[in-house]
């Protein structure tokens, strides 16, 4: 599920209005359900009510209903399409449509059911158990689940433990929202996740006109009942099957911007036509990984490309490194809405000031044009092309190392000689590569006539809700202070944009993964010296939903998604 489903999505109960049914008394405490049918849970007043049942014949099967079993919560009649299929393993699910036997709730009564694989919760103990980039093992619930880092708030006991300067408060009423939360409190920013007001009676909610329901102030509150006469209002009845629905997924507490929208290309085949197969996250062209890892060993590869770019290698124990580089922001005023990420800077007040991330529509990337980050701009689609000058064939000639894959990828001819070989011939012109994915080997993909036009919306015209997304700062003052120089930062604080930690005696150890052992195009392209050799012209995979993209960069790279 990637942790993105809001609480309540699991309630798949289909409420069936009880007129025109043979069982007239089932929606009322005045008369009981059909013989042999039992209902459990507290009855509540509702406008409509699902019919309890013991077998399919109790339901209107001719209209597509089935008797859906919710275990201890009871059985109710509902649409067959919305009736959950509980399971023990994947074999009973429709894998052809992407289903798997997954758990979608942390409630004690939760059962595994056949759902889309990405809708399932990924349980974890540590961050290394999370396979989606950017996800962390969030321990705020009674079980750890993998969530994007901006959906796993910091735990707290008092607001002094939160970033109050940025608007955070320590919300201690979270257990009333989701009983599976074990944290005493969470640091929440009301802009992204309002903290409900705790209460003991409705008088505590008088200022907002709400009711005290389950310990928090809410606009409405279900009323318990025994008979229809306990319910007031038009067409309100006493429903004994209100608790018969699937266990609810965990409530997600958003702490900052996330990726939203709908991918412009819903399938990989459509992406291949519209943007090139590599233009959509989750898509790749079938093939195999060939070549020889650059460096031949982790130490050499790590020194040349960074240990993280060398499959199979790990970074050794930290040494006595130092912080080097220059901050991206040369003054606190230039930090804008990123003030919190600038060492030594603080933010204040309540007016919209600053400069958009992209000062002109022309500087706005096409993927963000027209979104909240580039308000007032319009994208004009054009045709792309591969331009530049490829390496000469002789560039890949080497007497000690074989660069056969690189040579052949250029359209050159390789002749082996000793440990290396000679690369000869004439490289294929960059213009012969028809997609962004194949436009490599010193060639550059040009977006053609795609440009972003219009006039950027000034910061002063933005509301508080749209201010931050446009790159402006909503405050009565400015961002003040002095940027800390990279050299003044410790390893733990060397995260300021533009600074990098120099590892000192830190070494890259392990055994490089052979190119042929890399099974996906993504891992192959990350391994320096390896190349993906297509075996088919088709584009396969599943387009990654916007909500599953955890970083601003990956969100912008997926056509149709926006970061907000």
Keywords:
single chain, 564 residues, mainly beta, two-stranded antiparallel ribbon, 32 strands
Q: SSE layout and pairings?
A:
Layout: E1 44-46, E2 65-69, E3 75-79, E4 99-102, E5 113-116, E6 135-138, E7 145-148, E8 169-171, H1 174-177, E9 186-188, E10 211-213, E11 216-218, E12 237-239, E13 259-261, H2 268-274, E14 283-284, E15 287-291, H3 298-305, E16 313-315, E17 322-325, E18 345-346, E19 352-354, E20 377-380, E21 385-388, H4 404-409, E22 413-417, E23 420-424, E24 443-446, E25 451-454, H5 464-467, E26 472-474, E27 480-481, E28 499-502, E29 508-510, H6 521-526, E30 530-534, E31 540-541, H7 552-557, E32 561-563
Antiparallel strand pairs: 1-12, 2-3, 4-5, 6-7, 8-9, 10-11, 13-32, 14-31, 15-30, 16-29, 17-28, 18-27, 19-26, 20-25, 21-24, 22-23
Mean pLDDT: 73
Task: Classify the secondary structure makeup into a structural class.
Answer: mainly beta
Q: How many separate helices?
A: 7
**Proportion of strand residues:** 15-25%
Query: Order of strands side by side in the largest beta sheet?
Result: 1-12
The total beta strand count reads: 32
Measure the end-to-end span.
20 Å
Q: Helicity range of the residues? A: under 10%
- How many whole angstroms does the radius of gyration measure? 29 Å
**Low-confidence spans:** 1-40
Q: What is the global morphology?
A: globular
Largest sheet: 2 strands, antiparallel
